[in-house]
């Protein structure tokens, strides 16, 4: 097995701090995942506390296994947790791939925050982790998420179906290094 990469403890952007998710983030993240507007992107009902605990536990297990996972997204100005953004290994088309995902509180949509967080995670994935490719699996009809993927440089690869749901599969490859 390849060595587990070293991931920075936090990522700072102009408006956000992205830090590794912790077990005690459940209550704050429930503000995101109990929102029906957010959960419409997944096609599932809003989370309750037990669902949120399972979500966090799954991510913490993922972090331990791969050395990276979802970051908790904190608004720097207020210190408020407004969502998550990060990487998750998932099986897509019979291949294990790194998916870049982002979920923000609906009262913080349309401010460019998801794009800011996703661009920071994209840079981490390619620069620090040296991942060869990133994908974004977006439920069809989720135009705002699609725009975020496009703004950070992803392009539409295919339109797969998973578990009876139709998706847009966006992807991008790690840029070639610039010669010195």
Summarize the entry for a quick read.
With 180 residues, this protein is of the alpha+beta class.
- The average pLDDT value, as a whole number, equals 92
The total beta strand count reads 9
Terminus-to-terminus distance: 32 Å
Shape: globular
Strand order of the largest sheet: 1-2-3-4-5
- Helix run count: 5
- Which fold name corresponds to the CATH topology? Aminopeptidase
Largest sheet features: 5 strands, antiparallel
Query: How many independent structural domains?
Result: 1
The radius of gyration over CA amounts to: 16 Å
User: What's the CATH H-level superfamily name?
Assistant: Gcn5-related N-acetyltransferase (GNAT)
CATH architecture: 3-Layer(aba) Sandwich
Binned, the helix content reads 25-40%
Tell me which oligomeric state these chains represent.
Answer: single chain
Secondary-structure element order, N to C? EEHHHEEEHEHEEE
Strand percentage, roughly?
Answer: 25-35%
Regions with pLDDT < 50 over 5+ consecutive residues? none
